[in-house]
């Protein structure tokens, strides 16, 4: 792992049926207008294409698969109100090759080992490919049974991870260590596996993991930015900085778990658990809202508060990071749709960030600057393209489109 739009320029027609069989299509081009005088655009065909071509690690492949589902096949995403037809994981026709995300996933998933990809010492990262593997395993072709078995082995591997003192599942294979990044990897996979196996206990475990990670990683402070998370706690790679991308990973992971709970018929009435997850996500968003962005880029700084190892270290003025900013933007917009009563504050948070993301994305779809995904300590902005940053900005585009289509972002007076 890393040692680092309100005009819609198209209409979307989704064909919903029991068995999803859509021809391969290009990612949707999403146009954002935040005022009558400013209509920045983000071409998600380009941003997503770069995410695919730049990705070379397990977590990057998994994040790109998720981004492709949200951009190209939102009916298959957990954010769809019909995410689980008849209470089950969607049945994909054939081998899934006609679904962009799954065609990509098939190129990356290993089907003959305990994990879906080489985690390079991380036990959580390969789990990011788990949703793709489960969807492939649901396909009607008998050739795809290997993916179902591979997803089950990945689940077993994750559940056997070293545990932190409070029972939180480790991100690392050889030591109990908690990374904010893992919130996007493990809990959403546990939740989706729960639906696939009709396992309520496993879904509750996914929710519990969010709480256990928060217990350890949420910064202990009474400052106005309280609610933000530190990056890593553990004996091997500990870094207590308030890392923007880490908070983005955590918020996006928890909103995916929340969507799974809300959209699965079996758990849709779990109001207490949904409220708990909403609280956790809001804590991060509200913490970020209390901190000014970098005036040059309009992004949250790589370390939102302080420095890489301490929230009190202000010796470095960190650069604006598009990756973490895009992740936080996507999470806020998803929450706006899941809980429309929160839409006014979520949209007021997300709109300026969407504008900044558009302004800092070039004609090739490259978002810059970002943090170096393999070196979050460096003070040099990364400008050659972050795979996860490209996936995050694609997710932000899809989240804005879905928010507008739901009538939430176009009218914030709607209540849940």
Automatic annotation (TrEMBL):
User: Is Signal one of the keywords UniProt gives this record?
Assistant: yes
**Protein keywords:** Hydrolase, Signal
Highest taxon, organism lineage: Eukaryota
Annotated Gene Ontology MF terms?
hydrolase activity
Q: Name one GO biological process term.
A: carbohydrate metabolic process
* Annotated signal peptide: 1-19
What protein name is recorded for this chain? Answer: Six-hairpin glycosidase
Species this protein is from: Meira miltonrushii
């Amino acid at each position: 792992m890393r040692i680092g739009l309100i005009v819609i320029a198209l209409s979307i027609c989704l064909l919903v049926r029991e068995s999803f069989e859509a021809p391969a299509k290009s990612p949707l081009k999403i146009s954002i207008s935040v005022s009558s005088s400013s209509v920045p655009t983000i071409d998600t065909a380009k941003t997503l294409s770069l995410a695919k071509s730049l990705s070379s690690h397990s977590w990057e492949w998994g994040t790109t698969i998720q981004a492709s589902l949200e951009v190209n096949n939102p009916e298959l995403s957990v954010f769809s109100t019909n995410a689980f037809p008849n209470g089950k994981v969607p049945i994909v026709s054939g081998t899934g090759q006609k679904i962009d995300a799954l065609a990509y996933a098939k190129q990356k998933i290993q089907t003959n080992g305990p994990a879906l990809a080489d985690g390079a010492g991380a036990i959580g990262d390969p789990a990011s490919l788990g949703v793709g593997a489960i969807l492939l395993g649901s396909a009607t072709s008998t050739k795809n049974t290997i993916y179902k078995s591979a997803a089950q082995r990945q689940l077993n591997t994750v559940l056997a991870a070293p545990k932190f003192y409070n029972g939180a599942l480790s991100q690392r294979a050889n030591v109990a260590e908690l990374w904010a990044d893992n919130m996007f990897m493990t809990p959403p996979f546990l939740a989706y596996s729960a639906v696939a196996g009709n396992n309520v206990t496993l879904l509750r475990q996914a929710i519990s993991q969010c709480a256990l990670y928060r217990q350890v990683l949420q910064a202990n402070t009474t400052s106005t930015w309280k609610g933000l998370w530190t990056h890593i706690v553990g004996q091997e790679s500990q870094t207590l900085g308030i890392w923007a991308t880490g908070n983005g990973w955590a918020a996006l992971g928890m909103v995916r778990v929340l969507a799974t709970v809300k959209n699965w018929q079996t758990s849709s009435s779990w109001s207490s658990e949904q409220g708990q997850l909403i609280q956790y996500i809001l804590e991060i968003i509200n913490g970020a809202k209390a901190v000014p962005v970098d005036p040059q880029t309009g992004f949250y700084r790589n370390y939102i508060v302080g420095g890489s190892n301490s929230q009190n270290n202000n010796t470095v003025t960190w650069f604006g990071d598009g990756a973490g900013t895009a992740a936080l933007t996507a999470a806020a917009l998803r929450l706006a749709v899941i809980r429309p009563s929160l839409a006014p504050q979520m949209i007021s948070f997300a709109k300026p960030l969407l504008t900044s993301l558009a302004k800092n994305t070039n004609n090739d779809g490259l978002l810059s600057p970002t943090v170096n995904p393999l070196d979050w300590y460096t003070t040099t902005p990364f400008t050659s393209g972050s795979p996860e940053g490209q996936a995050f900005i694609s997710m932000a585009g899809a989240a804005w489109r879905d928010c507008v289509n739901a009538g939430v972002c176009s009218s914030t007076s709607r209540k849940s």
